[in-house]
């Protein structure tokens, strides 16, 4: 009987230890979609402008990015929160974002990106 209880506890622990800490959202973006969207957002943030953007213009730009990727702000946010709860998945996403941006950014911008991403963890 003790063996059965011990096996049940071990099996339960192993099953729950592999479980994601959050419930999967109904419309979860694929990691590849998250990588593409985050890359576009970062590129937008790095675009030099000669004038300060008001909140409405910035919001419109984000909406345009989400539309280009056939998603919404809410789906993106829910997906980001889901992946944020899984450190390995989020690290994979950010590593791929850095890879995507290496060919598009200057060395200074690449360093800034690494610093910003390390601050989010």
UniProtKB/TrEMBL annotation:
Q: Which domain of life is it from?
A: Bacteria
Any Pfam family the entry gives: DUF4296
Q: Which PROSITE patterns match?
A: PROKAR_LIPOPROTEIN
Stretches assigned to the DUF4296 domain: 25-104
* Record-linked InterPro entries: DUF4296
Q: What is this protein called?
A: DUF4296 domain-containing protein
Organism classification: Bacteria, Pseudomonadati, Bacteroidota, Flavobacteriia, Flavobacteriales
């Amino acid at each position: 009987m003790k063996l059965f209880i011990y096996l049940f506890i071990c099996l339960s622990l192993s099953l729950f230890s592999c479980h994601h800490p959050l419930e999967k959202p109904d419309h979860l973006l694929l990691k590849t979609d998250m990588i593409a969207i985050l890359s576009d957002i970062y590129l937008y943030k790095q675009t030099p402008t000669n004038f300060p953007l008001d909140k409405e213009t910035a919001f419109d730009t984000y909406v345009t990015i989400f539309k280009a990727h056939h998603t919404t702000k809410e789906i993106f946010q829910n997906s980001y929160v889901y992946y944020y709860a899984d450190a390995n998945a989020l690290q994979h996403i950010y590593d791929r974002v850095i890879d995507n941006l290496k060919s598009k950014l200057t060395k200074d911008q690449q360093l800034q990106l690494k610093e910003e991403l390390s601050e989010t963890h």
